[in-house]
Amino acid sequence: MRVAIAGAGAVGRSIAGELLENGHEVLLIDKAPSAISVERVPLAEWLLADACEITSLDEAALQRCNVVIAATGDDKVNLVVSLLAKTEYGVPRVVARVNNPKNEWLFNESWGVDVAVSTPRLMSALVEEAVSVGDLVRLMRFSQGDANLVELTLPPEAALAGTRVGDVDWPEDTALVTIIRGTRVLTPNKEDALEAGDELLFVAAPAREEQLEDLLSVRREDATG
């Protein structure tokens, strides 16, 4: 997979390193000569250019990229790069970094963004995820399809503890994608029984989040009252 990353700062270089380790082809683009540090990511391609300019993106052959990541520290730049990547070059997947949470509402399909990653929001979510049991935590928003990646750790008193996945009446527009149980990562099937302490990851429509949280975290009233 070929990936272009706009922004060769610490964030962009870190992403590039991870992708290269996983066998992908990476191009780093930055307009600041001081950011061009080939020795830090020697296996990447480097381009000294303004990623907001069509001529630069032509030189980068953006139409050959499977993914573009707008990872600069400037939200305006990330939006422009995302829009150009999607509308001018038809890049299948565009991921954009959100630096200021106040701008998060802009990072959607109208600006060519498929996935928006808000660093402050993600850090907050990870803190919540680490300390919350029984509360739904939103980890990431997917612009296409109006869906979120959400997590909930099943508390001991949850009504569904011990229930098989296939026997649960899940809300519409909701998919259980992973169960993390201790050090194991499980791909759920209908025969798996949920256990207290399971970390459950869902892709869910925002309108279904409250219903999902109620289903997982609240013990149903005993039939006798």
TrEMBL record:
Top-level taxon of origin: Bacteria
Pfam families in alphabetical order: TrkA_C, TrkA_N
Is Metal-binding one of the keywords UniProt gives this record? no
Q: Which residues form the RCK C-terminal domain?
A: 137-218
Q: Does the keyword Ion transport apply?
A: yes
Q: Which residues form the RCK N-terminal domain?
A: 1-117
Where is it found, in Gene Ontology cellular component terms? Answer: plasma membrane
InterPro entries found in the cross-reference section = K_uptake_TrkA, NAD(P)-bd_dom_sf, RCK_C, RCK_C_sf, RCK_N, Trk_Ktr_HKT_K-transport
Keywords (alphabetical) are: Ion transport, NAD, Potassium, Potassium transport, Transport
Q: Which SUPFAM superfamilies match?
A: NAD(P)-binding Rossmann-fold domains, TrkA C-terminal domain-like
- GO molecular function annotation: potassium ion transmembrane transporter activity
How is this protein named in the record?
A: Trk system potassium uptake protein TrkA
